[in-house]
Specification:
Layout: E1 3-4, E2 7-8, E3 17-18, H1 21-31, E4 38-42, H2 50-57, E5 60-64, H3 67-76, E6 82-86, E7 101-106, H4 112-120, E8 126-134, H5 135-142, H6 152-158, E9 161-169, E10 174-175, E11 182-189, H7 200-212, H8 218-221, H9 230-234, H10 248-260
Parallel strand pairs: 4-5, 4-7, 5-6, 7-8
Antiparallel strand pairs: 1-2, 3-10, 8-11, 9-11
Amino acid sequence: MAEVQGHRARKRFGQNFLRDPNVIRRIVVTIDPKPGEHLVEIGPGLGALTEPLIEAAGQLTAIELDRDLAARLRQRFPAERLRLIEADALRFDFASLPAPLRVVGNLPYNVSTPLLFHLADYADRIADMTFMLQKEVVERMAAAPDSAAYGRLSVMLQQRFAVRKCFDVPPGAFVPTPKVTSSIVRLTPLPAGTHTLEDPERFSRLVAAAFNQRRKTLRNALKASIPDPALFVQAGIDPNARAETLAVEDFVRLANVLAHAPASGA
């Protein structure tokens, strides 16, 4: 692996360090940090974004898993400006931080999807999130129904957030150079009550099952959990439709009908 500023990038942590000053500047402008806001950076790495964010906001909380990088960051930034937490963001309790949170970061691509699902559980404590991710993942996050990219990730995130792709970042902006193009994405929590769920766990299982066999009709893909087609009709859903044609609110409505159905298996 490549060595950057004396640090050898670790493949198991999915480390690709941002180095292009123009891209860094554009990301900071997109985040638009203000003094006094509670910024939380996931995976600060060598501090390419950390420094300008601290300059703009005054202080920052950062979550870093790599002990060597954490030690470097402690040497570089005073504790009153950088609150550094050595932890795995996938397991970190974001409720332990004072809300509202503005979460940012160049997320490791190998854990991006489970990390996004983990953060979604704290949507009520988050003001917004701005991330750099693999372009393909961002396109799936922001996809609309009836498109090839639309799937489980789209529905699960759009149930809680407005998702907007901001701009692309070429591979040459990083060291080591990844094989894929990246994108900046902004997620903003939807107003309370936008997509209210009776049973979030049931919704999650329903969406997963529907897209697990996305080429099948909903009647066939969900027959194990919805044996009675009348429940589709009750939710205003065509049982012969496919998962990719349903909007987020359709999945929410179907899940809520199932939550009140007797002996429903979903």
